Amino acid sequence: MVLLLVGGLLVLGWRVGVAGRVARANESPVVTTAVVGDVIVGAAAAAEPVAAINAPVLVDIALAPAAIPQTFVGHKPEHSFTIYRVERGDTPNGIADKFGIQATTLLGGNPLLSEESNLLQTGVDLVILPIDGVLHDVQPGDTLESISEKYGIPVETIVGYAPNNLEFPYRLYPETQILVPGAVRDVFVWTPPSLESVRGRSTGSGVTPLIVGTGTFIYPVNSRNFTQYFWYGHPGIDIALGEGTSVVASDTGTVTFAGWNIYGYGNLIVINHGNGYETFYAHLSGISVVPGQIVYQGNVIGATGNTGNSSGPHIHFEVRINGAQDNPCWYVGGC
Ligand SMILES: [Zn+2]
Predict the structure, then answer these.
(1) How far is the CA of 236 from the centre of ligand 1 (A)?
(2) CA 85 to ligand 1 centroid distance, Å
(3) What is the per-residue pLDDT across 217-231, written as a single tens digit (0 to 9) for each?
(4) FRET pair for 147, CA 20 to 30 Å: which of 115, 153, 220, 282?
(5) CA of residue 150 to ligand 1 center, whole Å
(6) Stretch 246-270: mean pLDDT, rounded?
(7) Ligand 1: centre distance to CA 309 (Å)
(8) Residues 272, 276, 282, 284: what is their CA dihedral angle, to the nearest 10 degrees?
(9) What residue spans in the chain does CATH classification 2.70.70.10 cover?
(10) What is the per-residue pLDDT for 118?
(11) What is the CATH number of domain 195-330?
(12) How many A from CA of 191 to the centre of ligand 1?
């Protein structure tokens, strides 16, 4: 009877097969049933066997929230942070140096900051973490494992940070915060106005400000002096060149933003290409287009500069597809 059960389950998948091997090693029909039962209950607690089979079998429940919460009361985290009020002229690196942390840790304590587009405005209060990492707001359903996976930091590292007050069985409390040592937070992404917001606006020429690009992209400047490439913490490419150099539209489209951007881009132009793509041209010294204007691939739209969160004359160029930042090098023929 038991052998039939195990044999039948074996055809359902490899994972159940593992359970079957464990059962045979124990050589006890009673244990066999218990192991298969444990696997199903522990893996998914589902009434439907198919769902249980799709779930992992080798479950380590040691790090899950307490099985019987009513009988266990843990300690909530006890963090102590420094609050720093941004002064005129502050930069991310300058503030980080002041406290002996990395600039990315400013993001770790302040979710709305990012390196390229930042909220480092005079008078804003920043949370300064005591060590490099991310301060994670515990959400319902979070587990140590899910937090570990989210930031790519081992569970032991999180548990090992004493102020997190994590002790077996590692219960997490919503509305508290866990410091994840060494983690780096996702960067804040500023979203320009959608094309809809300029639809119908008069451009003064009676032209409807909607056009679809060619789908090909050209370099916005002649220089290939790359100073920063697309990576996790930088959503575009930086190309250094002298101030006042012509910037051209990478493809045909409609200007959706042209002006000063408070999130670090400085003087910024955004072109919506009407096909899901948008291109960004940042830190400009001059802007020669207006929102709602149609531009064609290769048209001069402005001039390079050193405005916003910029440490030297360069252009910051972004390509977004359906709002998601993508590597511009893939579109302009390599970098
Ligand atoms: Zn940049």
Answers:
(1) 6
(2) 25
(3) 999 999 999 887 776
(4) 115
(5) 25
(6) 93
(7) 9
(8) -30
(9) 195-330
(10) 40
(11) 2.70.70.10
(12) 16
